[in-house]
Design goal:
The complex is a heterodimer of chains A (602) and B (221). By secondary structure, chain A is an alpha+beta fold. Chain A is built from 19 helices and 27 strands. Among the domains of chain A are: 95 residues, Alpha-Beta Complex (Penicillin-binding protein 2a (Domain 2)), CATH 3.90.1310; 319 residues, DD-peptidase/beta-lactamase superfamily (Beta-lactamase). In chain A, helix 12 crosses helix 18. Chain B has 221 residues and is mainly alpha-helical. Chain B has a domain of 61 residues. Chain B has four helices and two strands. In chain B, strands 1-2 form a two-stranded antiparallel sheet. In chain B, strand 1 and strand 2 form a beta hairpin. The radius of gyration of chain B is 59 Å and the shape is rod-shaped. About 20% of the residues of chain B have low confidence. Classes of the chains: A alpha+beta (602), B mainly alpha (221). At the A-B interface, strand 3, helix 6, helix 10 and helix 19 of A face helix 3 and helix 4 of B.
Chain lengths: 602, 221
Amino acid sequence: MSVAQGKSKASKKKAANATKRLRLGLSIMLALLVVVGGKLFLVQGLDVGGMAEAALDNRLRPTVLPAERGSILDANGTVLANSVIRYNITVDQSVNTKTESFKRLEKVNGKDELVTVSRDQGIAELAAVLGMDAGDVRKSVTGTRTYYIVAKDLRPDVENRVSELQIPGIFSEGTSKRVYPNGSVAGGIVGFLENGTTGQAGLEQTQDGILRGTAGKRVFEIGADGLRIPVGIDELTPAQDGKDVKLTLNSDLQYFAQQAIQTQADKLSAEWGVIIVSDVKTGNIIAMADTNTPDPNDPGKVAAKDRGVRSVTAAYEPGSVEKMITAAAVIEEGKAKPLDTFVIPPSLVVDGQQFDDSFSHGTEKRTLAGILGWSMNTGTVMAGQRLTKDQRHDWLQKFGIGEAPEIGLPAEAKGILTPADQWDGRQQYTVLFGQGVSQSTLQTVRAYQSIANDGVMLQPRLIDSYISPDGTEDKVAAKPPRRVVSEETAQQVRDILESAVTEGQIKEAAIDGYRVGAKTGTSQSPCDDGTAGFCGYTASMVGMAPMDDPRFIVEVVLQRPKGSIYGITNGPVFRSVMSQALRTYNVPPSKGAPVRLPQFAK
Amino acid sequence: MSAAAAKNLALPSGPSVQDVEAGLPGSARKARTPLSLVRSAPRKRRAPFVVLCFGMLAAALIAVLVLNISVSTAQYQLVKLRAEQTALTKQNQDLTQQVQNFEAPQNLAAKASELGMVAATGKGQIDLSTLTVSGDAKPAVKGDSAGAVIAAPAVPGQLNVVPPASSGEPLASRAPAAGETAAAQPETPAAAKPAEPAAAAKPAALNGGTIPAPEQRTPGQ
């Protein structure tokens, strides 16, 4: 009986030992599982180390999508400025310096083979493609910097050849470059950029916000093989390209005018010259030429004072061209008619002020037409005397003197029109013939355009429309027109201008086949350096054609030409530019008889 | 085992059935249950189910694999096409720029004078409605003084077509011709009389130079 008991006790003990061992093993396993589970929870659930974030950051690539800068076009779509792709070749010097040779896939005997190329050979080939000295290339690729620019502004085909060389450490980055295919034609108007991004002059500056567009952004996940992970994050804000700016200029006529004024200014050693061609019916500026225009591709070549557009920035005393305003005012106020008689002494004395003409004469009986046809200061003062001081001032103001034309160019001149009560004894008369008041060439053209357009003044337009990247064109609305004089007055003034060409002293403005009206202006130019008095002359001529239905106005201005002012004429330049404009736009020749108002009274 | 077979089987020897059933005392041996063939139920077949499971698993894996492969291939294709597009855009830009360079007015004028062309200044008109020719179109004459040369656009990398010295000047034929009177009379298209070209009022005294000598203007002459 005890043996049996002992046996059962022993077996129970064995059983107890076995159970204990089992329990121990189980608890160890559980403990390990808890550790693993806990770590899993920590990593996956709580992400204590921020590893998911770090991994995502590693994969995410935010890229800036640059917006393409808009182009500047002329009226016919000719590109005056646009942006093109250019490449900079950069080198990771540390990679290149330590790679003594590299393998490259080349076609050897018609088969693709891996060819080993030495570093020297690679450098020599790169120098050959870039057109640089091999020594310079070696210096730029040797070192420890990870980013160094070897060559800039390469064309895409050159960049292609460089990338085909597969030299280790050589990368290319795309940049945008602004090119101006027409160079200095309309160069000052188009303007140029500083450091390749911001406009610094001309339209590139004033229209910078519209041309620039908005950059976009793209965020995506990229794998180690360099390919975008298709199922990862992919956010895209598309870039909005800049709008194109379409101008009213005709670049062929612009070139013609620039060539003409440059020739004339060179011939007469003038300081500067300007030609403006304007469309009468719309106020569009067809050509606005300056001398020494900068080439926006290389603006540093011309002096800083030449980089603006003098047609709008240079204000000067207009001289005799202002007599047209006096005549229009006098006719509109009913104080005179084109054929009224004026008895003009050799020298006129008014209020103690003496006025002389550019030519000497005896006492003459002249019509108003003759006064303008021969550009007589004395006659102009006689006729203009019939207006009060305030009337003289207000008429000048009505014709836009003292009011800057806003066409979108920087630094447009307002001109100077002092209030009537500030005029002294002489100025109240000299403003009648354009001295003692200053205006820019565009202001003069605008005043003549109102006469050409039956008395309705249209504000000049340079920017015709904005074209968005999707092709829709937004025409820039013309500013509201305003009536300056009545139609009859405008017609009578036009007759006076035409008679100046047919009967008067401006016969050199006449053009075959067309009726032309014109006015010359020779004004004394105040000294620029602040000294009192006048230095030199400003010679100008403004005309319109054809007189049966005026289409174009052309003004030619020359500042301080050398030589006697009486021998200098802008007639040939005016003729060639006006006939070129009439030819370009296929204007039919004039019909009917030209107006010939008598210059002398009976 | 079928019932028929069971009947055919011989019963084992031993105390007879009746003896057992009688429960006679004295039969010391226990009666054994006669052996018979146990009919077993048909076993459940598990194999097709497992095959089905594995098959579905394999199919799912293959489907996912194919999907991933196609997406990745598409991605590679996309990269290839984008590269093509970039290359073509670059080429297009390059060619467009070359065309624009040739079209620049300065380059055109230079090329024209290189070819010996001269700008025409006189022109005639053909009125298509009445089919009359008016005006006086004379052949262009080469001027003797060269005008200003506007430099070619300095676009880097483009060829320069401006020749070193230009000849011919658009304004040359407008130079005052000696001896012609000033009479600018516009024509009616019906009249075939040629209009006299407008020239300066007086012949300019050039004295061998190109700038006319300054002179005092007197009216009426």
